Amino acid sequence: MFECYAYTVFLIKWPLCFCSSASLHLRANDREFNLSFKYANNAIKTSKYNIFTFLPLNLFEQFQRLANAYFVFLLILQLIPAISSLSWFTTVVPLLLVLCITLVKDGSDDINRHKNDRQVNNRKVDVLIDGQLKNEKWMNVQVGDIIKLENNQFVTADLLLLSSSEPLNLIYIETAELDGETNLKVKQALTITGDLGDNIDRLAAFKGEVRCEAPNNRLDKFTGTLAVEGQTFALDNERILLRGCTLRNTEWCFGLVLFGGPDTKLMQNSGKSVFKRTSIDHLMNVLVLIIFGLLACMCTILAIGNGIWEYQQGSSFTVFLPRQEGADAALSGFLTFWSYVIILNTVVPISLYVSVEILRLGNSYYIDWDRKMYHTKSDTPAQARTTTLNEELGQIKYIFSDKTGTLTQNIMTFNRCSINGKSYGEVVDFTGQRIEITEKTEKVDFSWNSLADPKFSFHDHALVEAVKQGSTEVHAFFRLLALCHTVMPEEKTVGNLYYQAQSPDEGALVTAARNFGFVFRSRTPETISVVEMGTNTTYELLAVLDFNNVRKRMSVIVRSQEGRLTLYCKGADTIIYERLHPSCSKLMEVTTEHLNEYAGEGLRTLALAYKDLDEAEFQAWRERHHEASTALEEREEKLDAIYEEIETDLLLLGATAVEDKLQDGVPQTIEQLSKADIKIWVLTGDKQETAENIGYSCNMLREEMTEVFVVAADTAEGVREELAPFQKSRFGSKKPKLVLDEKADGEFGLVINGHSLVSNLLRTACMCQTVICCRVTPLQKAQVVELVKKYKKAVTLAIGDGANDVSMIKAAHIGVGISGQEGMQAVLSSDYSFAQFRYLQRLLLVHGRWSYLRMCKFLRYFFYKNFSFTFIHFWYGFFCGFSAQLGLDTYYWTAVNHFFLWGSLSVYFAVSFTLYSNGMFLIFTSSFPFIGTARNSLNQPNVWLTIFLTTILCVLPVVALRFLLIQLRPTINDKVRYKVRQAKAVLPPPVRRFPRRRISTRRSGYAFSHARGYGDLVTSGRFLRRPVKSRPALFPLAESPIAENSPQTYQISSSFTHSKTKETKE
């Protein structure tokens, strides 16, 4: 375990480049031309196997377990009669059972993946083929086809937008599947293709040629050209629709397929399914290797002992135990080695893996049955989608989490505001003390506003009173919120407004203005219609000065019905303050205090300002703006300069504070996981400010940190230079292959916008309890996980709720999916799933720990039991002439197993009756409420009938098979037993009793495949204890100890065992 004493925090923006130098060339409406390049079709495949590769590939994965490979080797040995004392089916049956159970489980999982693939591939879309729109399956769409999408439809493939139903060829898309954001984004078609409209004939005659970059995983960049009628037009990301997006607020649009199926950016970012194995599996492989070595040593010692014994004593038994031709002590020792490999195989029993899988299955059921991880509102229980990773949950060191929908509910609420130096949103009692807002707190009544959103809630009545009293500043504040935005309204029925916003913040602010009497009703490219306190008002929209990451503000210039020109601006407080008129200094100080208060509560803040414009001044600026917007070179820079000219001497109105609502229990969960020395990294596609606010809300970032380092470089070298002072003071310039956690003196924060530095960056991050990576693509999330796995050698867990988290979930040791608002893609790719982030605490700290402890205790006992049993045979070899026979008959071992089996069942029933007894209910009423459950269920006759019938059905086939085998293919043992029974049935005639001769042979019960034979006749203790008598006629050799009537130790000859083994096999 690594240790970390600092609470430093990273905020990382991660713009990596993965572009390819290759290019793609296609022609619209020309399948024959496009097929010549052999581009991928639009069918996707997320499954691991097909009907031909399933068996070999799955067996290959299973035989990565050394024990499985070992038992195949053991099976081969048992097929050799000269060394085997066991029938081959004693190994092949349990081995096939283990392999088949795993095959069925993996096959079932892959069948579900195939079903999901078929469901997606069989979706329908309108495709333009031979001048007609035909409804085709997604899988049949080809590169170069033109397809038609309708409102709320998923984008079929990566498309070049050709035309749309909206003015200016605009469309609105939702990209939740790609980056987790549910806010809308705007795309616009080229003018030359937009003129095609929805005219099928013109679209069918379109023969534009596209040359663009090869398939890659960059979601934020696209480079290409479109050649039409001898003209060439540049293509960028604003013209491209990516697979996985959803068309919103657009009646229809047409697009040209550029990339299909596996070549789409969504699939390029999805990652590959990998075979996940736990550290326990790796440990068992190491233990198996060690045990193999021990087994080889034991077999070598016994084989050497057998060779020595055969050399010194074996010749004494060649008269009645003749050796095969060419057999000597060396050959006997060699064969004995392999015989003991078979006999001592219990040191690595195949039942180990069966038992481990059953234990894991039980642990999985504990997770599925946990009522404390059940979400009542969504009726979603926790689900262990795999049974092989339970104990790994107790070893997690790093957690990688998505933000939107995982930590947050992705719901923005308008909580506080500051207007003209007065703060609104708090609730105070009659003494002026602040009251905590709960669900029981009285809400503001918006019934006076017929267009108010019923879902909106606010608790400060003073703000409503100010609006009703006609406060000029308050009206100007909400008028700005109703005008300065890019929200698209949708009014399905009269008064039922639904806002589609590019940013959730904008949606929350426009909804707040709506409820306080300034209702944004509709818009056109030139106007904005607002209902102000019940009065319909239309503003002429003259200019939109859009938001970007550099400007960090947005402005609109509008003309009211009275002809008044006004610029409304909203943005980051530091940016707005730099552009305020000097007369606002006092108001700025008061507003700053309010902003600091809001920020301390983890709210997302914006400052609002306005400016009245002179007509002549505006017209001159408008001309300069037109020149800059039509410039061919440095257009963005010139527009920024023009914006700077007019956004000066603003008058401050106030500030807003919006809460990105966290899921229940997120701060507490993060705190508990941090106490368990688990480091949490947040990987999000959001901008830096958003991620930073969430960090404060979740208690990942705190104001009491010693210092915050800001790294804003855009190149790797620049980031390295800005990190250098901190890194040099902490740990010099060494770059170890394995990055260890180091102690930091104090608490630090680090904000990074730029490229990663891999190991150098990671080493700094290792001193942090929390890391936040901003602006990362789905594949880059997976690369962050791989980075930590490579350099830290720690167990990682990734948790997310959208398709943009799938690659991260697959890359981590354990993937957790949250069934949220962004679909089920993350759940389908995960190992565990539940409804809320807070359940992660119980999954790791309860189920993970208990599963790990159960597994460790089980393995410790299992190896102890099997080593004890195996060493008995090893020690017995020194007393039986190293002849490879059992020291304990299998009947004994079977009896022991049955004792523990039925004993454990007895204990189970005893504990069950105790837990559901009257006494436990009286002592612990709240903990044991199910009084009499076990007793009542077992009192039902149908329960016992079911148990009885199940037992009969399980036992009957085995009994019938054994009966048929005895009748049709009796063994030597069966024939001997039959003759013994016949002999007992008829009394034998009296015979002359001769003195019993002592014979130095002992037949092994092991040589008869664990069946009871006539070995008892020659292995009884009474038989061995009889005195030896002289037999000169039988042993005339002088050197024979029997001939000399000398004491003799009776042992088994290995050659006899091998010969009888062969006889038994035959």
From TrEMBL:
Primary site of residence: membrane
InterPro entries: ATPase_P-typ_cyto_dom_N (IPR023299), ATPase_P-typ_P_site (IPR018303), ATPase_P-typ_TM_dom_sf (IPR023298), ATPase_P-typ_transduc_dom_A_sf (IPR008250), HAD-like_sf (IPR036412), HAD_sf (IPR023214), P-type_ATPase_IV (IPR006539), P-type_ATPase_N (IPR032631)
Gene Ontology CC: one annotated term: plasma membrane
Annotated binding of Mg(2+), by residue: 402, 404, 801, 805
All copies of domain P-type ATPase C-terminal, residue ranges: 827-885
Region (Disordered): 1046-1066
CDD domains per record: P-type_ATPase_APLT_Dnf-like
Positions that bind ATP: 402-404, 506, 547, 570, 604, 684-686, 775, 781, 804-805
Transmembrane segments: 286-309, 329-354, 867-888, 908-931, 943-965
Membrane-topology descriptor: Multi-pass membrane protein
GO biological process, one term: phospholipid translocation
Primary enzyme class: translocase
Cofactor: Mg(2+)
PROSITE patterns: ATPASE_E1_E2
UniProtKB keywords: ATP-binding, Lipid transport, Magnesium, Membrane, Metal-binding, Nucleotide-binding, Translocase, Transmembrane, Transmembrane helix, Transport
Composition-biased stretches (Polar residues): 1046-1058
Catalytic activity reported: ATP + H2O + phospholipidSide 1 = ADP + phosphate + phospholipidSide 2
Active site: 402
Pfam families named among the record's database cross-references: Cation_ATPase, PhoLip_ATPase_C, PhoLip_ATPase_N
Subcellular location: Endomembrane system; Membrane
Ranges of residues in domain P-type ATPase N-terminal: 27-92
Entry's EC annotation: 7.6.2.1
Molecular functions per Gene Ontology: ATP binding; ATP hydrolysis activity; magnesium ion binding; phosphatidylcholine flippase activity
Protein name, UniProt field: Phospholipid-transporting ATPase
Species name: Astyanax mexicanus (Blind cave fish)
